[in-house]
Amino acid sequence: MLLFHLLLLFMMLCGSALPAAVNPAVEICERPADIVFLLDTAHGPRLEEFELMRTFVEDMIRQFDLSSSATRVAVITYNDEYKDEFNLYQQWPSETMLTTVRGIRYARGHSRNGHKAIEQALYLFRRWPRDGAARIIIYITSGKSSYPADTAKIAEKVKKEGILMFSVGVGDKVDPEELEHIATEDTEQFVYPVKTFDGLNNITQSLAPAVCEAPIPLVVPVAPCPRPTELVFLVETTQSVEQKPFELELQFVQDMIEGFDVSDDSTRVAVITYSREDFKVKVSLDKQISPEALLKEVGEIGFTGNSYLKRLQAIKAAYKILLQQSRDDAVRVIICITHSTASDTTEMPVIAERLRSKGILLFAVAVALKVHFDELGRIATEKRAPFIQSLTTAEDFIMLSETFGPEVCKAEPPEALEPCTEPTELVFLLDSTSSIASSNFQLQLEFVTEVIGWFDISPAATRVAAVTFSTKHKEEFGLDGFNNVGELLAAVDKIAFSPGQYNYMEEAIAYARDDILQNGRANAKRIIIAIFDGKPTQWNLALKEANTTRHAGIMIFVVGVGPAMSRDRNDLKMIAFDNNDHFVYTSSDFKSLPDKELGEKACSVEIPEVIRPAVVPPKVVPPKVTAPVVTAPAATAPAVTAPVVTTPGV
């Protein structure tokens, strides 16, 4: 035995060693660790030098217990770009792994983009995380980084996350200071300069134990955003977004979440994915879980890759979530991440203005230069940074949260318009006749949501009821059902479209008056807002009920939809509370219902002191006309003698 150890010592002193596969002196590291090797293939190493670097990786791997419970290994080569030779998920038995390393091909490049390789290593750690395992990067280079500032930034970021960084510099073209800045510490435990690629063999016996024994750094927690915040992320999943950029988006969302104090009393988070087909609420504000569980749930959001875009609808969904679920003392924030242009040039500014009027902050993050600044400006609260962020590639997400998170935290929300606090009883009459498509009925519900936003919903301020009508009418909910706007809007969402053939709006008006508003508060304004796309089937009955309602001191606002209603504006005035334009609104279609104008007017209108007389014109009875008696002189009709017809042969 003694002879064997003397022989081993002699061979090591001579710069040689027994093959590791049969070397009993090699102590196998059983530490749970995820190790990523970064191999420089820029213009420095030649093919034979690359092979020496590859052998070095083999020798290092041999000294670890490769298994899913012990050590996992990944290799990334980098030059102008990076390439995953294999990742942390692709794990095989030791001999298979060594064979795979030997099969890595040499692909020489020009630039030395080490920052991209480090970013990809961070991506691998996040993509396949493992509790309790040390995360380790071994950065091997033969020259100075082409982008030293970017390399230093990403190295600093990974170290802050508790990832161990070892740097190995080969040759005289490396920058010693850069190696020290990249490494966890500027000590010989983490920095390994060698003169030639042959020298890599000499550091294996010191580097492997250092990797095995280095303690996991303590992660200094960053002070989270202290203010109460409702934070909604919109994540695009269209075909223009590939799998990895989508995952980087999710990692960005996770990074942002970690910068906030996630709890019921501080920051709550929602995540909505959007594409062409639909938008989906993946995480909701009212489903709050532990920060760890939240990060896990975000990471497990699946990628769909659907075509086209429903960005506008996703923003509307986020807006509705904030209206329904947000706390009164919380700052409300939407962060919209997009890769694609969208044809929402007309409606988007309207929605953005609506968000501003409610005091909601909206940030736009574009991951493509083809998304123009003007388009982002239509989305964002303001047309400037930090409200607009334009990234060149999805990899830029990795560093964005470092600066963007604090900017979101300290951004001042726009001044919100004060809601109407005057006591009001408000009843919506919603047309559900068969002439209205289901999609248009949903637009009516959106209109109701927007008008409600102008009022302070509470038992002491504004109470709301809704009635649908067609051949029959139905009370969807009454005035007493809700204590706040969240409960009310949830009820609006549940109103179903049940079409009927006829428009018997007069029955809905009578029901709203006699069964809902009759028992309303004495000090409250009583308002009916009726929406319909065609004249009531029984027009005279509708006028009669409107007149009775008017004399009861109930104000009726009418919204006529469609070209015919615009032409029949005078007819609409006969149903409305007053025959001026304050109570009559028309719209060419259901997409452009006048929620802002009507909301403002319904809020500011005063309780009438004098009820105007009926607008139903009295029935006009034509005067009775007596026809004059005309006496004609008597005349004697001349006698007519019938001709005598003679039939031959008679």
Automatic annotation (TrEMBL):
Keywords (A to Z) from UniProt: Signal
UniProt-listed PROSITE patterns: VWFA
Keyword Signal found: yes
Residue ranges occupied by any VWFA domain in the UniProt entry: 34-207, 230-408, 425-602
Region forming the signal peptide: 1-19
Ranges that cross the membrane: none
Name by which UniProt lists this protein: CREWS-A2
Origin species: Colubraria reticulata
